[in-house]
Sequence to fold (232 residues):
Amino acid sequence: MIDPRDLVRHYVMGSETIRALVGVTLRIEDGESVAILGPSGSGKSTLMHLLGGLERPTSGTIAVDGADLAALDKAALARYRNEKVGFVFQPFFLQPHLSAVENVELPLMYAGVKSARERRARAAAALTAVGLGGRLGHYPNQLSGGQQQRVAIARALVNNPKLLLADEPTGNLDTQTSIEVMEIFQRLNREQGLTVVLVTHETDIAEYGTRIVSFRDGRVRTDQAILERRTA
Fold:
């Protein structure tokens, strides 16, 4: 499904060039749950931004279902992000003046779903899928951190993406809540076949996937399957 080849990403800051990625090549198959593991500054988040079409590589290719993301124009990249990718970040990025269900409806509005009834039904179903069917009308300040992250996951799922990209999704959560969030990712991967790419610096979180790709200094250091997957 996703086939990055020789990815290079440089950032120019004044007179300095930051080499965030240096010739990264890997392949992610449909239905995999891959953890990108590495310390801060290793290039893992840069890779996620490139896979999600949020940035373009300095050089290299990213083949997704036969199309090269690096060659798409802005409109095509926007369609790719909206139709095929769901994003979950460490900050929840919820709109404080909107209820949980209204927050989850937002991607549907951007996608042009005109029926308010359909938007509400799909958003409610997504929240129910992450265990928040009883919190549809609650506002972010009425929800715990774990519940807010579940709203963010539901928002990422509401357009039925093929790929879920999660950047340090447990970074703001306590241990028990982190386990609960990772169980949601496992279930989505196992039961729905959703491809999950998770960026983390925590080895115990990475072990919830089926494969760990370790990054350091913008390069892939190790790439290994997990024989016995951690469970909640």
The two ends are 28 Å apart (CA to CA). The longest helix spans residues 175-192.
